[in-house]
Amino acid sequence: MSICVPEPTRWAVARIRDGLSYATKRFFHEHGFCYVNTPNITTSDCEGAGEMFQVTTLISEAEKLEKNLIKNPPPSEIDVESAKLIIKQRGNDVAQLKSVKASKQEIGAAVAELQKAKENVLKMEERSKLQPGIPQKDGKIDYSQDFFARQAFLTVSGQLQLESYACALSTVYTFGPTFRAEKSHTSRHLAEFWMVESEMAFAELEHDMDCAEDYVKFMCQWLLDHCMEDMQFFADKIDKSCIDRITMSAKTPFARITYTEAVELLTEAVKNGKKFENHVEWGIDLASEHERYLTEVKFQKPVIVYNYPKEIKAFYMRLNDDSKTVAAMDVLVPKVGIILSTLNLYR
Fold first, then answer.
1. Which residue, of 113, 183, 304, 315, is most buried by count of CB atoms within 10 Å of its CB?
2. Alpha helices (runs of H) in 31-57, residue ranges in sequence order
């Protein structure tokens, strides 16, 4: 008999995750998005999204083969040659029986023995080729022997599949598990997490920012309306200001600044004595400390930063008229940092 000890924090998190999952689907449904199931196992990558977990049966098959070869070693060349001599002998037996005009039954039995000897040699030759370890070809792993006959991975993003659906359905989204084999083992870099991804065809950056802000506000308001008991538990036991931040995010318009304006604000803070571990200059990828300064000190609310340098964003981001920045945006929130990012924009 096992006894499960209650863990209030875990159960509160489970209820909130359940509520937010439902709220996510409701938000996108009410805004005309079509839900798309994207694959968890894929042969495609997503640049810059993170290292990928590989899905393969080669290792388990190699382990099985190694155990099998230890228990039942493959035949040697001498064994194969000896088996071939038996074929020759069985062939001679058939010829001898035919020459003396033996009965069909006797000849048939001899032919069967000959066929059996040939099949045995084929099996021995095939088994003699078996080598322990992962199969290789030209010094590289031979994925043609794998389950999918090619490299396969756990998904880091459903972006590619969503883009193809958006071409036909205009507004689509997916919501499911995502896997990242990141080297950083911190609470901010999970190996598995659930992610919302959406694609809007014929949308401008302004539409993207509006949708992102509306989604965050909707989720925050949902917590206040439907999960207040659990939120109060977190406020009492873990973070006293969590309800205040959620309320502020739900009720207050987000600040919107360009990347250039963000760097100018950070540079001004440095001049006024603020010290950052990461150097501030135009062209850097904003660090977590920079994001938290903007959201917690400067604006004290969520901030949308947009129009990033093209060098630090993906190649497919739409190039702005200045030829230096791209139409990309990130939603930053206090205590966390980035929670939403642009995926793709076309002109």
1. 304
2. none
The two beta strands, 140-141 and 255-258, are: unpaired
- Reply yes or no on whether the pLDDT at 203 is more than 80: yes
Same domain, 77 and 138: yes
Contacts of 121 (CB under 8 A, 6+ apart): 80, 83, 84, 87
Per DSSP, the three-state class of 204 is coil
Compute φ and ψ for 7, nearest 5 degrees.
-125, 90
- Cα–Cα distance, 303 to 294 (Å, whole number): 7
Residue 74 buriedness (CB in 10 A; 0-12 / 13-18 / 19+): middle
Q: Which domain holds residue 140?
A: 58-145
Report how far residue 52's alpha carbon sits from residue 47's, in angstroms, rounded to the nearest whole number.
11
Q: Tokens 């199931």 identify what position?
A: 37
Summarised one tens digit per residue, pLDDT across range 72-116 is 888 888 988 898 999 999 889 889 888 888 888 988 999 999 999
Residue 342, CA distances (Å) to 7, 65, 207, 302 in order: 37, 47, 11, 16
Contact yes or no for 231/215 (Cβ under 8 A): no
DSSP state letter for 37: -
Residue 123's CB is within 10 A of a number of other CB atoms, namely: 12
Q: Which amino acid is at 138?
A: D
Q: Which pTM value belongs to this model?
A: 0.79
Terminal-residue alpha carbon distance, the chain: 63
Last residue of a domain, one of 114, 145, 176: 145
